[in-house]
Structures are given as C-alpha cells and as structure tokens.
Amino acid sequence: MAPSGADFDLLKNGPVTLYHRQEVLDEAVTTLVGLGYLVHRLDARAWATRADFAAAVREELDFPDHFGGNLDAFNDCMRDVAAFSYGADRESAGTVLVLTGYDTFAARDRRAAQIILDIVADNARVGLLHGHRMVCLVQSDDRDIRFEPVGATPVGWADRS
User: Fold this and answer.
1) Tens digit of pLDDT for each residue in 15-26?
2) 150 and 117 Cβ atoms separated by less than 8 Å
C-alpha cells in the first residue's frame, strides 16, 4: 500500500511549501494538528534583521542558551530539532514550522530568507533518518514570490493556495 494522507501530500514534493491564502494555510495546519503534529508558528513580518529572526526562533523552538544567533547556529540547532533534542516531541507525528508574512522578511533580507528555507529543508531530510517528519509551511502575501530550490528541491505552491 502506498503512503497517503495530508502529511504525505505535503512532503511528497519536499518539506517546504508556499501558501498565499491564509485560510488555506490554516486548513493545512488544522489538518496536521489533527494528525498529531507539533506546530511552531513564527510571524516573519516582525523580523527587521537576522537578529530578530534568531530571537524569535530561539524562543519558539526552545533553543539552548548557547545558540549563537546566526545562520550557522540555526543550522546546528535545527539538526538537533531533527534528532528530537528540543523543539520536537517524539510522541508527535512530526514537527511543523509555520512562517507567516515571509515575503516581508524576504524583502528585507532575501539571502537570509533563502538560506533559512534551505536549512529547514536540509534538516527535514536529517529528521527522516531519525524517523522525524518535519514540514515547513511558508505564507506569503506576495503571490509572485519565488525561491531558489531548497535542499535541491524547488519550492512549490500548495494546491488551492
């Protein structure tokens, strides 16, 4: 029997999916919560700098005190999330990172916005080695926003986005 379900539909094209319409994103999140996923929500509209991103992600994912607050440290900590060290729960079906208003941050620091998604995608693959499904749902008010492939996978729009 082939795998199926809402989580499979999200992951089959890669761990990062774009959403334009908030109600479609909310529906996906509700479905994943119903399937037992742990959801972390971050509003990227509030991030004027990389330091703002680091502070928000540190708090939401309960990163350790030694978190360096830069993108290399984010990568290290996401590897730990993938291994269930923190920011995740082994008893859940997986972990969802929801980034809303991501276009606002991308307009401020396009390079960081791309690298963050790439780090999440790379570590989602690491998570699978630990039996940990990791999904990143990215909401953008800019329907024309595009990102380079992450984790060697294109970032595509959700169905009905």
Assistant:
1) 999 999 999 999
2) yes
